[in-house]
Amino acid sequence: MERAFVVKFGWSFSLNPFFYFLKKITGDGYYKNFYLPNIYHTVKLVDLHNKKIEDILDEKQIFDLPLIEQEAEIDKVFSVLTGRDHVWVVKERGSKIIAGLITESDVLKLLAPPRLPKYTFGLRYGKSLLHGTVKTASDIMHKQLCTCSPDDTVRDVLSQKVNDRLRRLPVIAKGEIKGEITTHYIIQVLLDKR
């Protein structure tokens, strides 16, 4: 499959060696039509928007998800986050029922020194690693999650990600996590790498 490109030659292309090369091989014309081989077989964006999540979801992805149980110690959460930028919190070990999410920014808030006003009422140190108020994963996780189902379309999921400013969405079926949808994952599907 080949894709047509229209290239306008002018002074700006003299800065880029690739376009300088193209100008050399196509002559002195102002506009030239030529064809470059398509490296990746791409799916049309409209077709991708109409696909269901279950159609693009890789079944092996469930084995690569970072999962940790709700009562796990903070040290275990930190060890998972050394290799990943987030971790899904499940109810108990062996379960896939989602209880929450912990991201790098949540941990950063724990590690940074607390910014307290001079006068505070009530609980002085909220969630703090320094003062020992955080002991388990359930103490720092986000409990209210935006989710999607396998029956949702890619268009709906992308709209939800843009509107809610989300980096990742868990795919939930029958209360259990089946995978996650990220922008990186959608790009891989678009380039037919998944």
Model description:
It is a single chain. The model is unreliable at 1-19 and 28-42 (pLDDT under 50). It contains eight helices and seven strands. It has two domains: 2-37, no CATH class; 45-113 and 125-190, CBS-domain (Roll). It has helices spanning 17-26, 45-50, 53-56, 74-81, 104-111, 137-140, 154-164, 183-190; strands spanning 2-8, 31-37, 67-69, 86-90, 98-103, 168-173, 176-182. The longest helix is centred in the C-terminal third of the chain and has 11 residues, at 154-164. The strands form three sheets. It has a three-stranded mixed β-sheet with strand order 3-4-5. Strands 1-2 form a two-stranded antiparallel sheet. 30% of the residues lie in helices and 21% in strands.
Main beta sheet: 3 strands, mixed
Poorly predicted residue ranges: 1-19, 28-42
Q: Output the radius of gyration.
A: 24 Å
SSE order: EHEHHEHEEHHHEEH
Q: If classified by CATH, what would the architecture of the largest domain be? A: Roll
Structurally, how many domains make up the residues? 2
CATH class of the largest domain: Alpha Beta
Give the averaged pLDDT, no decimals: 76
Shape: elongated
Query: What percentage of amino acids are in beta strands?
Result: 15-25%
- Going by CATH, the homologous superfamily of the largest domain would be CBS-domain
- Please tally the β strands and state the result: 7
Number of helices: 8
Q: Alpha-carbon distance between the termini?
A: 19 Å
How are the strands ordered across the major sheet? Answer: 3-4-5
| Structural category | alpha+beta
* CATH fold assignment of the largest domain: CBS-domain
Percentage of residues in helical conformation: 25-40%
